[in-house]
Amino acid sequence: MKRLFVSDLDGTLLNKAANLNEETVQIINDCIENGIDFTISTARTPATALKILKPLNLKLPVSLMNGVLIYDIVNDNFIKEECMEELVVMVVLGLIKTRGLSCFLYAVKDGEFTAYYDSVESTSMNYFRNEWIMKYDKKFTEVEDLSLVAKDHILSCMLREKKDKLEGLRRELTVVKGVKTEFYPDVYNSEYYILEIYSDAASKKDAIEYLRKYGGYDSVTGFGDNLNDVSLYEACDYFYAVSNAHPEIQNMANSVIPSNEENGVAKYLSHLLDNIGEPD
Asked: Which domains does the chain possess?
């Protein structure tokens, strides 16, 4: 049986400092070297995810931005992307502006990933932007008005605020055709929630189904922790939650493994490698 193993990043494979523990890197690289097919499914953009993943000797494409992008690490190119239609982007921006909120628009233009903004009046969004620039050297491009770049292959729209400031917008978006949303707590600061808006043709589930066919896999096992991993769960034959996972994620998992701080995913794979042939 050909099996694929897929892990979320933040809160699952990464530690509380948003880094890969050395033990996790060593174990996973050993597993890959010994024939375990392992990849990543994350909400992160290419700008941050690919930098974090450099220590891992990944050989398979990775799913980024909740399935919006699939990136071939070996050949250094995007092999699948789901953009939002220009009219849909304009509708979304109108709803955001009406509520006095700020957002980032993510796009791939001429093969390069970029993040657009036209305001950083939001304390939360300003903090997010500055942190991502300093830690990951992520590129942010300021424009006079985000509507001016609505046609530029927009992949998603992201907001980060306190939960009550985003709930109304999320409800409004449920009737907008052509979009899908993910709404979940920031694993690094539970005071804030993240709202991601993207094409309804994309999801972690769709991306994993693509990778299943891409590699001809008979079985997929996933690992996750947060509410945006429900779609990952739906795509997998087996699903495991780390012990620090959201209660809803733990309840739907086949089993709970050690936390992200305890290298739970890596230890599961190491145990599997030592017992090849045994059932999950």
From this structure: 3-81+203-274 (3.40.50.1000), 86-199 (3.30.1240.10)
